[in-house]
């Protein structure tokens, strides 16, 4: 099974694949698109998993080269506001966040000059650590804990998330 992952910290998708679904062999990719390409090409994996919150999930659903194999719902790790200073600042220069969390920007509890989209929750944590300016991120608790960030607030606790599992389309079996 392929899914979005990072060697530095677990993603929600990796956690669901390994813990909830108990897949024995999980291959991590820097993007869902990379996993899709390997499935289509028949390289390394036969299927990949994508959460419904991924804004580009439609491209897999509509692909003639992929086939939707399964859909299931499970709870994901808490989504939190985190940073690398002791207390939540009243104002920050930037908020790093994954595209799926954009609606939560109004809930973070501080003012900000800029919101920057990053490719994953893990990348949001990494950006906070690397940025010398006052900043926070919206991420999952798994990633925040792995990077030893301070959690200032919990925005969502255990959201029920649909996940799609895709395989390569076979003759006469595409999603279309």
Please report the distance between the alpha carbons of the first and last residues: 23 Å
Structural class: alpha/beta
| Outline | elongated
Tell me the CATH topology of the largest domain.
D-Maltodextrin-Binding Protein, domain 2
- Give the fraction of residues assigned to helices: 10-25%
List segments where confidence is low: pLDDT < 50 over at least 5 consecutive residues: none
* Binned strand content: 35-45%
Strand order of the largest sheet: 7-6-8-5-9
Number of strands: 10
The CATH homology group name of the largest domain:
Periplasmic binding protein-like II
Q: Give the name of the CATH architecture of the largest domain.
A: 3-Layer(aba) Sandwich
Number of domains: 2
Describe the sheet with the most strands. Answer: 5 strands, mixed
Describe this structure in words.
- With 176 residues, the chain is of the alpha/beta class.
- The protein has 2 domains: 2-76 and 160-168, D-Maltodextrin-Binding Protein, domain 2; 79-156, D-Maltodextrin-Binding Protein, domain 2, CATH 3.40.190.
- It is 22% helix and 35% strand.
- The strands form 3 sheets. A 5-stranded mixed sheet has the order 7-6-8-5-9. Strands 3-10-4 form a 3-stranded antiparallel sheet, sandwiched between helices. The protein has a two-stranded parallel sheet with strand order 1-2.
- The radius of gyration is 17 Å and the shape is elongated.
- The model has no long low-confidence stretch (mean pLDDT 93).
